[in-house]
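Record 1 of the preview.
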Amino acid sequence: MTIDTLGGAAGLWLIAALVLGILELLVPGVFLVFLAIAAAITGVATLALADLPVAGQLASFALWSVVAVLVGRRWYRDFPVAGDARLNDRTARLLGETVIVETAIEGGRGRVRVGDGSWPARGPDMAVGALADVVAVDGGVLIVAASSPPA
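->
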């Protein structure tokens, strides 16, 4: 298949749209997708208007890029993507977790099991196997309190 079978310049714009769409998937940033949309619209316009000059094609791409970005900005403002502000903060994600005392907490210090890992902990004296709640994190040390039984 050659570019001429795709409609010459229109085919190039459609290929550019495809490449930009693939790049958006490989390097997500929610920006290249808008350029891909603009390139696709320009490709279809160039296919419909076979004698559209290169300047007209570039102007179409620029115009549709601006329109797509503005529509995208409006969309993300009206329908924000819910995210987790603590996504990359592992210690903050531990707040409120119930953990198991692994090494008895004596004199305010011990270790707790979190999932398959072990963390240093500070808190009131607790025996091995006791349940504790993470109430704070201080420099990689979990601050724990005795877990209250579920009501």
